[in-house]
Amino acid sequence: MSVAQIKNKERVIKELTLFIRKVFSEPEICTIAKDIARKHLKSPNANVLIADELSSLTNVKIPAEHSEADELFLDLLKDIVRDETALY
């Protein structure tokens, strides 16, 4: 693995860690994020819609240009919502 790849992975981990800290300090973000994901899950541009609404309703700010960490978070969020519906 190159130095650039290692640095990128470190940046992604740091970004995700900061987000997890926000969630622990404001647990209502989880509920809001899942509600938003449910609403936009089937949209062709779900990541953009989820990111925009989450950014407008919480202190989680996802920029228009999604980073690798942003994409990982959005994909995880959609998977969690899909898993909920699969249980029923």
Describe this structure in words.
The protein is mainly alpha-helical and 88 residues long. The chain has one domain (3-86). It is built from 4 helices and no strands. The protein has helices at residues 3-25, 28-40, 46-57, 68-86. The protein starts with a helix and ends with a helix.
List the helices and strands and how they pair.
Elements: H1 3-25, H2 28-40, H3 46-57, H4 68-86
Helix pairs in contact: 1-4, 2-3, 2-4
pLDDT averaged over residues: 91
If helices are DSSP runs of H or I spanning 4 or more residues, what is the number of helices?
Answer: 4
Shape by Cα distribution: globular
Return the domain count: 1
Major pleated sheet:
none
Structural class: mainly alpha
H/E topology pattern: HHHH
Helix content: over 70%
Q: Flag low-confidence runs.
A: none
Distance between the termini: 42 Å
Strand content: under 5%
Number of strands: 0
Question: Rg to the nearest angstrom?
Answer: 14 Å
